[in-house]
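Hello again,

I reread your note about wanting to compare the complex against the isolated chains. To keep things tidy I'm splitting this into two emails, and this first one only covers the full assembly. Below are the input lines as submitted, including protein chains and any nucleic acid or small-molecule components. They are followed by the predicted structure of everything together. The single-chain runs will come separately.
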Amino acid sequence: MPGLLLLAAVPGRAVGQASGQLNATAKVLPGIGVSSTPLDFGTVTPSQARTIAPQVGGRVQILLTKQGAVKKGVTVGYTLPATLGPRLALSGWSARRNTVNDPATATAVGLVAPSGSFSALTDTGELYLWIGATLTTTNAAPGSYSGLVTLTVAYN
Amino acid sequence: MRNSVKVALAVLAFTMGGAVVAQAQATSGSGTLSVSANVLSAITVTGNDLVFGNVAPTQTKTIAAANGGRFDITASPSSQVSVTFDLPADLGDPKVYVDTWTALTNTTNDPVTGASALSTATAAPVSVSATGNAYVWLGGTLHTAGATPGSYSGTVTLNLTYN
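Full-complex prediction:
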């Protein structure tokens, strides 16, 4: 009777060599752009308080990628200067924000000195921020003074 | 305006269906907003009297502004100030009164050459010279009507604010 011999082999690992491919891709999105126009108190006397409303104050334009902004929104961080120089105090910071360049229809944003942040969504890929404050001079020396509001923008 | 934009790249990598996908996404940015102001010099003003001199108990006497009292003003160079006058109706006695006031202004101490008329009734602009000076002259017409002999005086106040 012929005998049958069944040989079975189950490899513990692949035998031989093979090659495959995979794709490596990258998509670079546009950077966040921030540009601004100054908050200018104009001319003031050595002892005076002058308030500039945000609607007519400095303007910040933030350009975002739509995808990131719509899906997650952004967080805008800010640092506000306390003074423009000796005896030139800044206070009463206020702001409005909008997704279009229209301060009249903008939404009020509470700013807390000296620094803070707030979140915002935009479906236009743009975010506008208008900033106002009160400058109080107390026997300030004549001259030109300036300071900087620092803004950081990050996707949530 | 100084703007600086810093871009951080976050790289996400994962495998799916044999593919490695890397997405480099700009996730943050920053910028600055300039805040500025120009502080003007304090305004100073000194007065030199308008003197009507001697008058009879009943008389009318006019002193032209060019010969009258003078305010010397210092302010920020090349600025403009708005002036108003607080004028007395009389010099302490209704029988010694002034009913007409006139004024001139100039950026140099010369009430004739280059001077211009200035309203005493409403707020009026006064130009300040490149060296920070301005001048205002004030005249008037004094009337006495049976006034008692003696010395009389009143105070004229010049109010100035930057425009």
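For quick reference: Chain A touches chain B through 58 residues (CB under 8 Å).

B.
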